[in-house]
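JOB MANIFEST
job_type = single_chain_structure
chain_count = 1
residues = 115
[input]
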Amino acid sequence: MEKILSSNYFIENNDLEWENVGKGVQRKILGYDEQIMLVVAKFEKDGIGYAHQHSHRQVTYVTEGKFEVQINGEKKILKKGDCYYIPPDITHGAVCLEDGLLVDVFNPCREDFLK
């Protein structure tokens, strides 16, 4: 396995471009190394994070907006200040009900995001 480089010590938001990752969904990859990654995801109303699964642990904090989040078949409406945890290999997804912003933390790093 190829070694993952780490991000810079200091990351300034304005230096990063939004990456389009789906209709109404964009992301910025912030700090990371092999063990951890911080990502900000911006959703327009009706934007969808389609159901998927991965081997990474994920914790997500809702900083703006309202989302219908589905984890392992269970749905819940979450809003600013709420959070959710996803264990490895569990199917999950989200639908944005009001323009919003999510902060995702992954362990280990999402190598697929860096390619």
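[summary]
The longest strand covers residues 92-107.
The chain has one helix and eight strands.
exit_status = 0
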